[in-house]
Specification:
It contains twelve helices and seven strands. By secondary structure, it is of the alpha/beta class. Strand 4, helix 7 and strand 5 form a beta-alpha-beta unit. Helix 2 crosses helix 5, helix 3 runs antiparallel to helix 4 and helix 5 runs antiparallel to helix 11.
């Protein structure tokens, strides 16, 4: 047992070092969150098992608290919190798809343990197919939960990493207008971008400021134009603002802006960029800048707290979709194992016991 415990600690330390190196070399990899989460989990398991060898009673109490009580209580608290957040969001923003994300997710979290309990039916004679379905549901739920915790934790860490000075370009991503007017959410991004621009000026730099966003449904002007007008009114010279007014999503923001910058003689071939968005959108935007090969850092503007849970959940779903192949492979492996166990349970006892 002692050797296995030490092996857990060694593996946890190795993963922690790998995660730290990834943060230093390329902090925009979302998968780094999973590496660090795995390191934390292994070290926590080592601590519990090491304590078990010294004080069995205390270790059992900690294990019960962490493995038996904490998961359902966390799901209950998160579910109730998301439902409450959905009510607040609907009152402020109105009922629409975006405001329904949080309460639907909350209801799902509240129903998940109940569904698993009904399918598994502890203490009863549960058919193998139902047991397999329950186990598969629990495993996939755990897979999603681990990814959500890793994504959330790493997003918080990334947002607190020190920012590099010396940007040639400050780019601000659009997020919709109210008719032709800048919304409070977009104004927060623009104020953050102007602060980043002025910081570079104060440090002796001479960056340009890119407003990026096309004209969407219900908007009387392109987002980039309304954003540029807002910045000009705040004192940014019009000559230092570049308007990218074709994009409809974050990927197009980055791609079309890169194309515009290549046409400008005063901009370096691969400029250093500071990309400004909302705090809930930072991690996915950072991963996209890495995917496009941009020398960029992403910073976030503060968002109204009531808006963050639903927006962050949408970002997490978008990240899952962007990594759908890997997730489908892992889910497929889990379901295959569960199916194999279910088939095994149906085999005649004599056949199973044969050499």
């Amino acid at each position: 047992m002692s050797g296995f415990v030490h092996l857990l600690l060694a593996a946890g330390i190795v993963l922690a070092v790998i995660g730290a190196v990834r943060v230093v070399r390329e902090p925009r990899r979302v998968s780094t969150g999973l590496v660090l989460f795995a390191a934390l989990g292994l070290i926590a398991l080592w601590a519990v098992l090491a304590l078990l060898e010294r004080n069995t009673l205390v270790a059992i109490e900690i294990g019960v608290a962490l493995l038996v009580l904490l998961p359902p209580l966390s799901l209950l608290a998160a579910g109730l919190g998301l439902v409450a957040n959905g009510v607040v969001l609907t009152r402020r923003e109105g009922l629409r798809i975006a405001t329904a994300v949080a309460p639907l997710a909350g209801i799902g979290l509240l129903l998940f343990p109940l569904a698993a309990w009904i399918l598994l039916d502890p203490g009863g004679r549960t058919p193998a197919w139902r047991t397999g379905l329950g186990v598969a549901l629990v495993l996939i739920g755990m897979l999603l939960l681990v990814q959500l915790l890793a994504f959330t934790g790493y997003a918080v860490l990334y947002a607190r990493l020190p920012q590099r000075p010396g940007a040639d370009v400050v780019m601000v991503l659009g997020c919709g207008l109210a008719g032709g007017q800048v919304t409070p959410l977009l104004a927060s991004r623009l104020d953050r971008a102007r602060a980043a621009y002025e910081t570079e000026l104060a440090a002796g730099g001479d960056p340009i400021l890119v407003t990026s966003g096309g004209q969407g449904p219900g908007e009387s002007v392109a987002e980039a134009d309304a954003m540029a007008d807002y910045l000009e009114a705040a004192g940014v010279p019009a000559a230092k603002i570049v308007r990218e007014n074709r994009s409809r999503n974050t990927e197009q923001n980055l791609r079309f802006t890169t194309e515009l910058l290549r046409e400008r003689a005063e901009v370096a071939e691969n400029p250093r960029m500071t990309v400004v968005t909302s705090d809930f959108h930072v991690m996915r935007s950072a991963e996209l800048t890495r995917r496009f090969g941009l020398d960029a850092q992403v910073v976030g503007a503060r968002t109204a707290r009531y808006f963050v849970p639903a927006a962050f959940l949408r970002e997490f779903v978008a990240v899952l979709v962007s990594h759908r192949r890997a997730n489908l492979v892992v889910a497929g492996v889990l379901l295959t194992l569960v199916a194999a166990l279910a088939v095994y349970s149906y085999l005649p006892v004599g056949l199973v016991d044969q050499d």
